[in-house]
Structures are given as C-alpha cells and as structure tokens.
Amino acid sequence: MSLMLKPGTRLFSAVCSTEMIVVKAPGIPVDLTIGGSAPVLAAADRPSGGAVVPGYDGGAAMGKRYVDADNAIEVLCTKPGDGLPALDGTLLQIKDAKAMPASD
Amino acid sequence: MHLASLVDMVESGFEDRVLLVTADDPVTGRQLGQLARRGASTLRGYDAVVYAGENHPLLPVALLAAACAGVPFVPVNYRLEDAQLNGLIARHANALVLADDKTVERIVGSVTAFDEWLAFPGEAPFNDAPLNEDDVAVVLYTSGTTAEPKAALLRHRHLMAYLLGSVEFGSADEDEAMLVAVPPYHIAGIANMLSNLFAGRRLVYLRSFEPQLWLDTVRAERITNAMVVPTMLSRIVDVVNDTALNDTALNDTALNDTAGVPSLRTLSYGGAKVSERVLIEALRLFPDTGFVNAYGLTETASTIAVLGPEDHRAAVESADPGVRRRLSSAGQVLPTVEIEIRDGIIFLRGEQVAGEYATGSVLDSDGWFCTRDSGWVDAGGYLFIDGRDDDTIIRGGENIAPAEIEQVLLAHLAVAEACVVGPPDDEWGQRIVAVVVLRDGASVTADELRDRVRAELRSSKTPEEIVFRSELPHTETGKLLRRIVLQQLEPPFR
Hints:
The complex is a heterodimer of chains A (about 100) and B (about 500). Chain A has about 100 residues and is mainly beta.
C-alpha cells in the first residue's frame, strides 16, 4: 500500500508503539512500513492485534532520524517502539547527526 | 517543516513529561498540545498574535497557538516608551494583541490580558488551519542603524531547520530544566523556547532578570541549563563575589568560593561580546558547569556558531596563545551553515538563514546573508567576531543607534556637533559616550544634556559620559570619523 507523505505527516505503527513524523518526502506515493506493516495516520485508526514482522524489529529510538540510501525520505522517531521503518521493504538507516552542545 | 509539527511532536514524545511549570499546575506535553490547539481556535479571523510583556510561564502557548492557527507570533519590546510601543503594534492592524498585566493599560487599541486569554472558555481545538512552511512564523523587531525598528521575518522552515540542525529531538533527560532569563522579544528568547521544547527540557521562566533571583531560582528549581547575555553574566559574577566577601567577613572558614549551583550542567551566553575578565571569573565560580558561547543573529534564526564546554576547557588550559585566544571566539560554525569572510565581513548561508525583513529579502542571488559583523576564522575553524561593521552600539544586549541620541543632543541650542560612540565596558559590553562640541560662546552642563536624552528617549540610551571637545575629526568630504573619535577618548572613557 502506498502512502502520499509530506513533511509533518504523522505516522503511527499499526503493530507497535512506534510513532514517527515525516521530515522529508518525495512528492510521489511511497511504500513505507513501520514494523513491517503500513502505518496509520491517526492513533485512533490503529487496528488491534497484528505483530511486528521479524526483520523489521529491533527498536526505533527516540529522536533518531531514519533515511533511505537515496536520501529521498526522512522520518523522525517521536515515540520509541519495537518496529523499524522501511521503504520498499528495505530498512531505513539512522542518519548520523553530529551532537551539538546545548547552546540555547 | 512547519512549527505546528512541533506541537504534534511534543504531544507524541512528551505525553506525560512536564514541560512548563506554572504557579498552579505543571503542564505536560499532552496538555501543552491541547492548550496550543485551543489557543489557536481563538485566533480565527486574526492575521497575527502580538505579545507585549515580560516572560510568562505559559508564553510558549502563545507562540504554539499562533503556529497552529498559521499566523505569525510578534513579541514586541514592552520596555519601549508608550508611543514607540503602540507604533509597533499599530503595524499589525488585524492582530490579536496580548499583554501582561503591567503592559495592558499602556496599549492604546484593542488588547487582551494574557492571563485572561489563557482561560479559553469552551474553545474547541483548531486542527484544520491551512499551514505552509513558507509562511512567517515569528516577527522580531531589530533596531538598525537608522534607529527605525525593522521587522525581521522568520519563516517556519527557518526555525525548523535550526531545530533539526542543532538539537536532537527528545535528547534531554527527564530531570532537565532550562531557566529562561532573556526577554521574549529577543531571538534568544524564541530560541530558548523552541530548542528546549524540542529537546524535551522543562522551561522555567524568570519574569525579568535580577541576578540574585536568577541564582535562587537555579537552586530552587534544580536548573540544569541556562542562557544569559553577557550583561547578566557580569551581574551574576558580581553577586557571587559580593556574597563570598560577606560570608568571609562573618566567618573566615566559610569562604564561599563558587556560585553554589551544583545542578547547573550548561550555561550558555551570547548576544554580545563578553568581557574576558568576566568569563574567566565565571569559569572559576562555576567549576562544575559547562560553558557554551553561542553566536547568532535574529536574521539567522539564532545560533550559527558554538564554542562548547570542551573548547572552553582546552583554551583555558592551553599554553599555546592561538588556542588560548579561542576563549574569546564564537567557536565553530554549525555543520548545517556555510560561512565566507568577504573583505573582513561575515557572510552566511543555510536553511536557517532567513535574511529577510518586512521590506524584503536581503539575501544575495546565491542565498548569502551579509551579517554586517566583521570577523575572521582561525586555522582550526574557530570564528572570531571583531564587532559590528556599522556603528550600532550594543549595550546590555540592546542595539542602540548613535544617530538617535545625536539627534537629541543636536536639538539642544548649545550643541554644535555630537558624536555618540560605544567604548567597551566590562558590565554592559559597550557603554555610551557622547562627544560634544559646543557653539561659540554657548554653555551647557553634561547633566543637562544627559537629562534631556533621558527625557526624550529612555535611561538605557542616556550617555554614561559626556565629553566636551573643541572639534571633531572629519573626512575630507565632511563625514564624521567615529573610529577616530573613539580612539581619541582617554581612559576611563575608552
């Protein structure tokens, strides 16, 4: 199932507690999953049952940003959970960010 | 991205974490989100939110409500005199004007007390405002060289680029708390608010700065992070030193040789150049605190260069003068910002660099912003700021245009010529000195001139000193040579 995403779109995993927000998206529908299943766009739409698909587990970490190899899509984890984000079946990778001292 | 996304993120990530503290109740991320959305619903039909007042524990509700409603937040300087304050507010004809209790009666047009606004009786959340990251999020008034306040525009994408580029979402521990002492109409006040909410750090507001209150609040609230302008740092250092002296007088063994704020992990300072004497004193008095110098401008959506705690330590401990000198640098430029020095002037480019006023963008065709600050970068990539390229005096973080003061002086019948300059000052960053030439045969005292400036402008613009001269240096084309005037001042004025 493809989703049309834009910066600011909130994504709720359908199979775990992971929540994401889209930072960057291509202007075309994409096949994005969290925990191996298509996410939903509102907490209320979360189905019951369902489980994280093996291979798409291991834990999304708070505040981390996940990107694809082409840097076409970027999502930020706002609530941690077991399920990891993937594009077209390939896991997104944590984007390296240089830690800055808190300046303000 | 749009700042309204920050509301979503705070609700998602910090549902049960306390982010704001009021006299009555703590406010969690979930509650802050609800307040912002309900606040937004009161903004239907308005095209901006103006805030005139001191800091307030719920100030972020006003900014986030404006973001959710898709209208700019315009914090104005409540310290301006009535006519100027109302003049700025009048530029936003269709705004909801909010003011604190002290300021509300000074405002001429329609105004709502901030505490009353916060009640939002029966308002349903506003979730469907049209939002565009290219819209203006915050309008801040800077006083430029002409002394006519300029409206600097920061769009949502600039502020979000700053947050994403320099803060990791949710990176604060649950026990962390930020003490905000800078006023809401300053870019640092906006940055304090947004960066710490993004990090998930509780915000504690000082209504307005007073050094003993600042120290007491750090201790009482177990503050872990704080930001001050150099004037504040200087006054805090003075208070700690005075206390130490008094304690010593009472009891020789009870020498209080530190500020006594063990909870404080990070103290950042910025907004103007800090005196090295004050900084070295502060490093000694806050031995367990990491110091951070942040350099940035309103037009760059706050910080673009940072001198971190490790840099401070390395500089103080180094025998190499080149490394020691970095203590007075602005540190290294953020990886998300490009810098170029052209003819000694700092140019910046990046997603957070707005470089735009209500009158239009000042970015060049390649997106570069001229800061009008002169500076240079050393071999290690450390940025040094020499000062404003123009003549603006920055006293206590406040930009003061010499021309404005000179006009008042020149209006006095006894005054033939006047030049206002800002020699360096340990406490204020710069002090105001007026060099005056009297008309032949005329006489006036320094106090008379100072009284006149205070009456026409305000005390923070009143020259600390008036120096009388028989003439002022000029170029061949008659332009006043301010640089020479400054150089000719004798200590203690220089």
